[in-house]
Amino acid sequence: MMNFARYFLWILVCILAVTFVFMGAEFDYNYIIPNRITRLAAIIIGGVCIAFSSITFQTITENKILTPAIMGYEAIYLLFQSLLVLYMGMESQIVIDKNSNFFLSIGIMLLYSWVIHRWLLAGENNNVYLLLLVGLVLTLLLSAFTQLIQFSISPGEFSLLLSYSQASFNRAQLSQLTIAAVLVGAVCIIIWKALPTFDVLSLGRYQATSLGIDYQVFIKRHFALIALLVATSTSLLGPTAFMGIFVANTAYMIARSPKHRLTLPSGCAIAIATFLIAQIMVEHLFNYKTTVGILVNLMCGTYFLMLILRLRKAS
Amino acid sequence: MIHVNNIHKSYGTKSVLNNVSASFPAGQLTSLIGPNGAGKTTLLMMIGRLLKVDSGEIFINEQNITDIRISMFAKQVATLRQSQDFTMRLTVEELVAFGRFPYSRGSLTKEDHQAIDNAISFLSLEPLRQSYIDELSGGQRQMAFLAMTIAQETDYLLLDEPLNNLDMKHAVEIMRALRRLCDEQNRTVILVIHDINFAANYSNHIVAMKSGNVYDSGSVKNIVTEENLKALYEIEFEILQSKHGIVCNYFHPQEEF
């Protein structure tokens, strides 16, 4: 049963991927299919980023209802895009091309995370909860600034900005994907090597210290790696907000074990499958009249409510 | 041997430990006793390096503990905090395997499996080996966590109120297991304990603490007296000798309420 659910998940991902690439493409290997493969790559990279960052973040914070979004990474990204539009208007698209925007966004999110980690995780009395609280308040503050800007720009500029605030796979370009793949791959290998340590960490901070983990060093390093993952996925796709909660918790249920060796791959498969379903629906059912972000939130939300209702009935 | 030298710790303006010095003899079972808020747990957590000292030094076999790397320290000292209230879906065996982390860093060797087996059989936990922790009773869960600590194969075990919320049978089982760890394996056990009768009947050595200071320390015979306990806990004690040990009766103090 346990293995079956995991294998089923990967078979589902493969079927969805093949459907996505070939559905209605009439084997057009010159334009449609290469384009779809680019989007598929973006989906895979994004899915891996979300699964890895959410699950490891939840382990470090010992909390199953958080995602790294609470630290304000996405809020700073949106503020940056708003500022670009405010000062340069529609021309910002030309002055700063998509590639530069991608790198600038990553740079700014990493700078932001470096500043708050340095500020709040300094010294030995670091407190993860304080970090979360400050992250939450900064998210609200930054969002308020973004809204302030949104009121003072033209409707055309606003719709440009709106496109940045929703996750989408149409933005990503091959050059960005290559670099993102290298970055994310490297981070995932580092995290994968530390998985036994993450397992120990889920026993709690003190038990982990008693088992020989240098807690301070470990969480500082891995908060930085998580920031890198979130920065990459946000620059590539846009904000995914709280999809990570859904991905992580479904992964725990399907893996039926707290071992990260099992939960992380399941999480990746769930994230990729969700993105694929949403993207197929956007392209074929809604004909681009809605966005992946909206569909993902709709699907995750409905699924989660169903799950809670079912659990309540069972108990 | 663990020496604690002039330890000071305060939270804000409230000082919790004032120049505490004590020693904990090797190969023996030492009980830290005293009223709530005396600083027992704080002291234990500092020895286990789960809390930082404000000032003062702690030596283990004449070596300052801050000179030992955390990863090496975990092979010498294992700490178990009180109330394991987590709900992770792990089997007893998987939990005990975490005790080998300081050695194997996650990939278990043959020796690790041997140590896990030893710890499980030492506490007679074989029937529960494949049971899930979140489905065990409080006493069984405490046993499983103790097994993890034992599998860590450290010379020193620090336990914070290991008998908390246990019934008499499980409490006796845990104390006998700790006694055997000292007697059979020559390990050093230090525990914070509130049940004075368990402390009196199972310890070699007692360190009594009161309001952030060491009130007194020494052998059970020297510490567990009616006068000492009365001064320590501020209630009257009657100490009864029986052929199986001593009983401290504090249930009906004679003075006015």
Write up this protein:
The complex is a heterodimer of chains A (315) and B (257). With 315 residues, chain A is mostly helical. Chain A has one domain: ABC transporter involved in vitamin B12 uptake, BtuC (Orthogonal Bundle). Helices cover 78% and strands 0% of the residues of chain A. Chain A is globular. Chain A starts with a helix and ends with a helix. Chain B is α/β, with parallel strands linked by helices and 257 residues long. Chain B is built from ten helices and twelve strands. A six-stranded mixed sheet of chain B has the order 6-7-8-3-9-10, with helices on both faces. The longest helix of chain B has 18 residues, at 168-185. The termini of chain B are far apart. The model of chain B has no long low-confidence stretch (mean pLDDT 88). At the A-B interface, helix 9 and helix 10 of A face helix 2 and strand 6 of B.
Secondary-structure element order of chain A, as H and E? HHHHHHHHHHHHHH
Q: Would you list the SSEs of chain B in sequence order as H and E?
A: EEEHEEHEHHHHEHEHEEHHEE
Oligomer: heterodimer
**Total count of strands of chain B:** 12
Main β-sheet description of chain B: 6 strands, mixed
Which structural class should the secondary elements of chain B be placed in?
Answer: alpha/beta
The total strand number of chain A stands at 0
Cα distance spanning the termini of chain A: 21 Å
The CATH superfamily label of chain A reads ABC transporter involved in vitamin B12 uptake, BtuC
Radius of gyration of chain B using CA atoms only: 19 Å
Helix content of chain B: 25-40%
Mean pLDDT of chain A equals: 85
Instruction: Give the biggest beta sheet of chain A.
Output: none
Coarse morphology of chain A: globular
